[in-house]
Sequence to fold (194 residues):
Amino acid sequence: MTEAAALPPWIAEWIRRSGVRELTGEPGSTAITDGEVVWLVNFDPDGWSMLRRSSRGSTPRVVLGAKNADVAARSVASIFGAVIRIKAGLPTIRFPVSSPDAADGFLVTRALIRNEESSVLSLTSGELLAFADDDELGVLNLVKLSHHLTMPPDELLACYLDPAGGTLARHPGVSLVPDHVPDSPPAPLGSPQP
Fold:
């Protein structure tokens, strides 16, 4: 297997850490199977690194088009970082959902990509980095990606392992949200339940 074909080498161990057992690839393509969900990352003829998702055998749907494999890997890091935090009982890292909340140095705007209105992430210099559907989820994915691109991969992954969310949680608009807050502490084992 050539995992580095469609994703850089640092992301493979991260994906496995989330509990995914099936990570396969060939030159230019990587498939990540997590139960009934399959994530596909491959290069299209135009050179974009495309992240697609399929569930229960459905036709894969484009989640994100990225300028290169490193940009795509930052989005994949987020997906599996969230899984790692859930399994560890850590709070969710919540990102802002509005275009103006992109990290400093980045813009989320709209543009025509492949003859479709899309949300796009670019540097303030105008360099296009990624595109997604022109809807709330597409904007959220691009805003989140902008925050991930502000740091090197090792720092990004450390943020997902840090109970406090590391430097990522200190970005403007980013917050930590407990996934479940019990109404009262659980009773000790063997004690009568109310």
